[in-house]
Design brief:
The chain has 240 residues and is of the alpha+beta class. The protein has three domains: 57 residues, RNA-binding S4 domain (Structural Genomics Hypothetical 15.5 Kd Protein In mrcA-pckA Intergenic Region, Chain A), CATH 3.10.290.10; 90 residues, Alpha-Beta Plaits; 77 residues, Alpha-Beta Plaits (2-Layer Sandwich). The protein is built from six helices and 15 strands. The strands form three sheets. Strands 7, 8, 9, 10, 11, 12, 13, 14 and 15 form a nine-stranded mixed sheet that branches. Strand 8 and strand 9 form a beta hairpin. It is elongated and about 70 Å long. It starts with a strand and ends in a 5-residue tail after the last helix.
């Protein structure tokens, strides 16, 4: 249970006074009945948007929230980096949610594709935990033709990246074309895919993440768009 004005403030609908004004104005309804008491306790369940509305529009889903986004090129994942951020592509009020939304790992500015965003710290840490080895699948376009040895090198589990002292875990390479490949990794080292191809004498010119664990980027999710995942859909990340 949560106090109504605190709940709406945590969902980003404004400060406490703002949401109290909405309530006093009869703009907030529960199952069609206008609420007037800002201190009223509300059951916070996953189906809350089906019951609680503001000006006739369902409220945003409460925490825990997990969503997928098709990250476009040129957008950053950090709250602190300069430039357009993935959070700028979400509804503006979501930037005021408490707990705050964070990306589950990161994609660099020049990488597109699937990124998960959540306010659920436990879920985030389970996905990125080195102990989980959640596979991540990338499609890479390369500057030079593949020479045919990359698959065995990546699968061996002995490749050492420049500046590191621990070899990479085995990774799976699927050749898609002369200069295109799909790579599945189970780690999340800094710029790992780009550095792996650099280690075998090539250069990634385009990189797109297609899948995290059992969650794939849908074909109908355009760059910059997002989709909320149900609890069951989010857990499919671990179905590998």
């Amino acid at each position: 249970m949560a106090r109504l004005d605190r709940l709406l403030a945590n969902l980003g609908y404004g400060g406490r006074r703002d949401v109290q004004a909405l309530i006093a104005g009869g703009k907030v309804t529960l199952d069609g009945v206008a609420l007037k008491n800002s201190a009223q306790k509300i059951a916070v369940t996953a189906d809350l948007p089906q019951h609680l509305k503001i000006r006739g529009v369902p409220v945003d889903p409460p925490a825990p929230l997990v969503l997928m986004m098709n990250k476009p090129l040129g957008v950053v994942c950090s709250h602190r980096e300069d430039g357009e951020r993935i959070y700028d592509l979400l509804p503006r009020r979501w930037q005021a949610r408490d707990p705050a939304l964070s990306s589950v790992g990161r994609l660099d500015k020049d990488t597109s594709g699937l990124i998960l965003i959540t306010d659920d710290g436990d879920f985030l840490h389970r996905v990125i935990s080195p102990k989980r080895h959640v596979p991540k699948v990338y499609r890479a376009v390369l500057d030079r033709p593949l020479n045919g040895t990359e698959g065995a090198t990546f699968a061996e589990g002995a490749l050492m990246l420049e500046g590191e002292e621990k070899p990479l875990l085995p990774a799976e390479l699927e050749v898609l074309g002369e200069r295109e490949a799909r790579l599945t990794i189970t780690e999340g080292r800094y710029h790992q895919v780009r550095r792996m191809f650099a280690a075998v004498g090539n250069h990634v010119t385009a990189l797109h993440r297609e899948r995290i664990g059992g969650v794939a980027l849908p074909d109908d999710l355009a760059p910059g768009e997002h989709r909320i995942l149900s609890a069951a859909q989010a857990e499919e990340v671990f179905d590998v």
